[in-house]
Amino acid sequence: MIVGLIVNPVAGLGGPVALKGSDGPDVQARALALGSEPRAAARAAAALTALRSRRPDVRLRTAAGPMGADSAVAAGVPHEVVYRPRPRAGGSDAADTRAAVRALAGVDLLLFAGGDGTARDVLDARPSGAVLGIPAGVKVYSGCFAVSPFASATTAAGFDGATLDAEVVDLDEEAHRAGGRVGVRLYGTLRVPAARARLSGRKTGSSVEPPGSAESIARAVVASMRPGAAYALGPGATTLAVGRALGLELTPLGVDVVRDGALLASDVTEHTLLTLAMSQVTYGVLSVIGGQGFVIGRGNQQFSPRVLDRLAGIVVLATPQKLAALGGRPLLVDSGDTEADAAFDGHVRVVTGHRACVMYRIQSASEDLP
């Protein structure tokens, strides 16, 4: 089996430092200056390690240095370098990703580690065969990604040539930063292995929810808030409704912290959230991503493993319609630390409306799926 690998070395940089994405050299430089650390290479290496344990005969072709070869070396996987990015300030860019896709034409399956921006670059290069994303970006709204690096490896190891079409979507980061507008656009489809249970699926919005659903959940959350405790409200339309119920304007796609009905900190980074959680009782309020089921690890990387360890607990929000759309699939956690994720395995109380809640299965995204 011949597998190709492309890594976007800067994917995911913007998440922990509240930049909502990592597209563009200026944003990447700012994220690094704020102390964010690259994670795509490590997630790619984890996928390769798991893949080789299942398919020792795998042959790997990749790009040089941080675009793939470094991850192969870290995983101890023999590899052939078929593309070398041109030396330039700031490292590789989208043109290198597209060129690497063309250089890897002919592999049985092309793996790429990144986020939705990377998926767009792969799509633009018109790959000749099946591809599969290793989730490593801030936003992973597209349906062409596996739910975790482990799921990427398991899917690749069992790939028999059967494929399905998966959508590539992305957020307009510049429009959001300029005016707070949140909009997801469909760019096209990629062929991916036909393993639906291990695929993230495309994120769905809240426009199909019955009127008042989010407000009903918000009333329940506000009524249950404990005096003196802090609540870190993650991104999502439902948590924005919690802000409205408190008379506060929260940050779209950001994490805001409230206490006793007042805004304590706005659009916090992972470091700020950790500092707050270490100094006072703090709960995380997290909404479920529609169509995917993720609670942690998609667009809310401020809730890092060390932050999760300091929280007094989490409050999960979802409408009954959103849970029903999962078709029995579990809620998922992908913080980047398998031990931290495994701590959530079991069932979690999900607030579904005013005086309404259900117990729902939640698990690490790195657990084996059918």
Walk me through the topology.
Layout: E1 2-7, H1 25-33, H2 40-54, E2 59-63, H3 69-75, E3 79-83, H4 94-103, E4 109-114, H5 116-124, E5 131-135, H6 149-157, E6 163-171, H7 173-179, E7 184-193, H8 213-224, E8 230-233, H9 237-245, E9 256-259, E10 262-265, H10 270-279, E11 282-287, E12 294-296, H11 305-310, E13 313-317, H12 320-325, E14 331-333, H13 338-342, E15 346-353, E16 356-364
Parallel strand pairs: 1-2, 1-4, 2-3, 4-5, 8-11, 11-13, 12-14, 13-15, 14-16
Antiparallel strand pairs: 6-7, 8-9, 9-10, 15-16
Helix pairs in contact: 2-3, 2-6, 4-5, 8-9
How would you summarize what this structure contains?
The chain is α/β, with parallel strands linked by helices and 370 residues long.
Explained architecture:
- With 370 residues, this protein is an alpha/beta fold.
- Helix content is 31%, strand content 25%.
- The chain is built from 13 helices and 16 strands.
- Strands 10-9-8-11-13-15-16-14-12 form a nine-stranded mixed sheet, sandwiched between helices.
- The protein starts with a strand and ends in a 6-residue tail after the last strand.
- The mean pLDDT is 90.
Spatially, the strands of the biggest sheet line up as 10-9-8-11-13-15-16-14-12
Cα-based radius of gyration, to the nearest Å = 20 Å
Mean of residue pLDDT values: 90
> How many distinct helices?
13
Distance between the termini: 22 Å
Structural class: alpha/beta
Overall 3D shape: globular
* Unreliable spans: none
Helix percentage range: 25-40%
**Main sheet: strands, sense, barrel:** 9 strands, mixed
Give me the strand/helix succession: EHHEHEHEHEHEHEHEHEEHEEHEHEHEE
Strand content: 15-25%
